[in-house]
Amino acid sequence: MPHHDSPTPSSSSPHDADWWRQAVIYQIYPRSFADSDGDGLGDIPGVTSRLPYLADLGVDAVWLSPFYPSQLADGGYDVADYRDVDPRLGTLDDFDEMVATAHRLGLKIMVDIVPNHSSDQHVWFQEALRAAPGAAARERYVFRDGRGDDGELPPTDWPSSFGGPAWTRVADGQWYLHLYAPQQPDFNWDNPEVREDFHDTLRFWSDRGVAGFRVDVAHGLAKDLRAPLRDLGDQQSYQPDALPVDGSHPLWDRDAVHEIYRGWRQVFNTYDPPRFAVAEAWVGTSRRMAYASADGLGQAFNFDFLGARLDADEMRATIETALADARDVGATSTWVLSNHDVVRHVSRYALPGDHRKRDVEAWLLTDGREPAPDLAAGERKARAAALLMLALPGSAYVYQGEELGLPEVADLDRADLQDPMWVRSGGRVKGRDGCRVPLPWTTEGTSFGFGSGGSWLPQPSGWGRYAAEAQSGDAGSFLELYREALRLRRTLVADEALAWAGSQEPAPQGLLHFERAGGWRTASNLSDEPVRLPQGEVLLASAPLTGDTLPPWTTVWLRTGAASVSRSGR
Ligand code: GLC
């Protein structure tokens, strides 16, 4: 396998305002990426030390999940100070050095911003607790009197997303709102001070050279807080597709949220190049792109792709909708297979049945042995899905370790679980720790090269076989598949259009087949039967090819030389 000792320069110059439209963005979950000081927790200097690996992998940008001061009640998504680095993870100087190193390597840095709620350790919340009911300090959050004769009942029936009620009572008898853990009080976005403060935070990181932001719970900020607060009644269970499409839910995806992001866009556009953001918005498909509009954030995660079955018809429909919706607002689509909140896709695809939510949930309730995963099948499908994703127009978000083919660690000892979901669900749902186990870098050694100490979540004994060290240079490995795909992608991606092949004649069952500009064709056989290999020179395949067949669960990239294909899209 040829080694790319110097990274290919990005197709976009550092000042290209459109760099994100066709980017590959690598998500780092800092606690679990690389630990430079041996305390078992990944840190910023650890990230810096591994940036050459990411440049070599061929990504355009890195998105860091929260690294801010936090008591880690929700893995860092409980932020105590939005403009600092957690001392356990480094300093602002370390952050600056990371950015400088990234820029030298041609990589951009994006950071996570958590605007729906802070940590209860945030100075504002501490001030609110000390203040009396009705004081201005309480108006930055959502404090209310309870119901019942003595206010002993929560103000509404709103549930926390991690289980239990969304209200916690404080000493003087008032209740505060937290749609997640009690250590994550929700901000009151009707308060101009909150809005101004987030503008300052966006400027703070933009001034430090950050290219963009991933916006946590982007659909949650604008709540209907008018008195009397409305109960949810039968709207309690949260399903993105079941949210009202007119934006009338009291908590989620209200139209007023876009006014907040128009304000953010004005801040972004004072920079050259303008800063960019991607929304994490678990909303219905038809509502998603409002977050990605040109006067809004720029992009929105397309979780339909992550949730779709690996089935040609379902994938094709999901892809078509995503491309059309993005085009409508002048954005590009995003593609996500894994992140720090979901079961790693090797394991999802390894489950029997259709690996949809219900299978995964059933599995999360057990010790990860029932239903039994078929990891070889999962890996094969994950490789096919990766080449499919990386061939699509738009931006691909790769979650750390996905390029190593890491599976979910589904049998973590209960005593080691740290996700608030585990505790708040009363031990019913194991939660998300299984996709957050620290990465293996070396085949042996303390914590497989993650750091010189242990690791905050135990790594399985066989973890070394997935190590970057073990895969580097092995042409059949996941890592080399991703490296080669990203290298080719840079030479191949020419525009944002995609044309489905074979629209005249019905494609064989299970075949997903499309063309990109410049004579590049992708065919995925998402079935158990071999199909005929479409014509073209093979550039890359997710599994070995034999003769002129495309084996089951395989994606191939082909060069056809045909310069003109009919295009859907621009
Ligand atoms: C987002 C994050 C998740 C976190 C939640 C609350 O969904 O991705 O990890 O628990 O928001 O901040």
Structure explained in plain terms:
With 570 residues, the chain is α/β, with parallel strands linked by helices. It has helices at residues 44-57, 92-104, 123-130, 192-207, 257-268, 285-288, 303-307, 312-328, 345-350, 357-364, 375-391, 420-424, 468-471, 478-492; strands at 24-28, 61-64, 108-113, 143-144, 167-169, 175-177, 212-215, 276-279, 298-300, 334-336, 395-399, 499-500, 511-516, 520-525, 531-532, 537-541, 549-550, 554-559. Helices cover 25% and strands 12% of the residues. The strands form four sheets. It has an eight-stranded parallel sheet. Strands 12-13-14-18-16 form a five-stranded antiparallel sheet. A three-stranded antiparallel sheet has the order 4-6-5, with no helix packed on it. The longest helix is centred in the middle third of the chain and has 17 residues, at 312-328. The chain starts with 23 loop residues before the first strand and ends in an 11-residue tail after the last strand. Mean pLDDT is 92; it is low at 1-14 and 563-570. Alpha-D-glucopyranose binds at residues 74, 77, 114, 180, 216-217, 280, 340-341.
